[in-house]
Amino acid sequence: MTTPMYLSDTYQKENTATIIKMVEMDDSLAIYCDSSVFYPQGGGQPCDLGSLIINGIAYPVHHVETTEDGIAHVLESHPSLLECNGMQCKQKIDMQRRLVNAKSHTAGHLISHIIEKMNSNLSPAKGHHYPGDSYIELIESERTNDLLSTAQINEQVNKLVTQAPRPIQSIELDLAEVQSLRPLLSHFIPQSTRVRMIAIDGFTPVPCGGTHVASTSELEGLQVTRIKRKKDRIKVSYSIHRG
C-alpha cells in the first residue's frame, strides 16, 4: 500500500519514493510507490498532476487514482519503465493546480459551515469541488420554510476571509466521536478506528480525505453564486479566484 503524504502537508510539492509495483493498461502504465505526494481523484476533488523522475528522466503523470493496491500514478507506457520496479523516483506535483483544488475544497467546507450556523436543520451531504463547477449539497432533517440568500452567506464569507480569518487544521478523532459530532456523515465514511477530520476554527469538524489550505484568508474571491432547492436537499454553487 501507499503512504499518502498529502494528508499531512498540502504544501509539500516533492517526494522521494520507491517503486513497488507496475501495471500495464493498454497504452498506459500505472506505477505504485511506497509513498506518494499526489492526491488521487475522489472525494469530490480532482487529482494532482505532475511528473515522476526516474533515472533522471521526467515522465508526465496524467491521472492519479486509488485502487486496492494503493495509489496508481498513470503514465504513458514506455519500454524502459518496465524495468524500474524497486527503484527510487522523485515525485513532483503541479503546485498551482494543487492549491487551486485545495482552495476550492476548503471553500466548500467554509460555505457549508456558515449555512449550518444559519440553519441548524441543515447538514452537509455532498461536495463537488471541481474549479469552474463547484457546489455543495446540504440535507434537511425536516422541511422548513427558511430561505437562504446568497447575499447573507457572502457577507459571512467576506468576514471570515478578509476581516477575521480562521486557521484550518487536520485532526484525528475516534470513530465514536465522529458519530456523535456528525451522525449523518459518519455512515458514509470508512469505519476506521481513527478518522481524519478537517477543522476550521470555530466550526464542527468534518471527516475528509482531501487537501486544504491553512487559513480562510487564502480563499480570496470566494463567492456563492446560486442556491437551488430540490426535495430535501439544498444545492449551493460557488466560485473562487484561481490565482
Automatic annotation (TrEMBL):
<dbReference type="Pfam" id="PF07973">
    <property type="entry name" value="tRNA_SAD"/>
</dbReference>
<dbReference type="InterPro" id="IPR018163">
    <property type="entry name" value="Thr/Ala-tRNA-synth_IIc_edit"/>
</dbReference>
<dbReference type="GO" id="GO:0005524">
    <property type="term" value="F:ATP binding"/>
</dbReference>
<protein>
    <submittedName>
        <fullName>Alanyl-tRNA editing protein</fullName>
    </submittedName>
</protein>
<dbReference type="GO" id="GO:0046872">
    <property type="term" value="F:metal ion binding"/>
</dbReference>
<keyword id="KW-0862">Zinc</keyword>
<dbReference type="InterPro" id="IPR012947">
    <property type="entry name" value="tRNA_SAD"/>
</dbReference>
<feature type="domain" description="Threonyl/alanyl tRNA synthetase SAD">
    <location>
        <begin position="195"/>
        <end position="237"/>
    </location>
</feature>
<keyword id="KW-0479">Metal-binding</keyword>
<dbReference type="GO" id="GO:0043039">
    <property type="term" value="P:tRNA aminoacylation"/>
</dbReference>
<dbReference type="GO" id="GO:0004812">
    <property type="term" value="F:aminoacyl-tRNA ligase activity"/>
</dbReference>
<dbReference type="InterPro" id="IPR009000">
    <property type="entry name" value="Transl_B-barrel_sf"/>
</dbReference>
<dbReference type="InterPro" id="IPR051335">
    <property type="entry name" value="Alanyl-tRNA_Editing_Enzymes"/>
</dbReference>
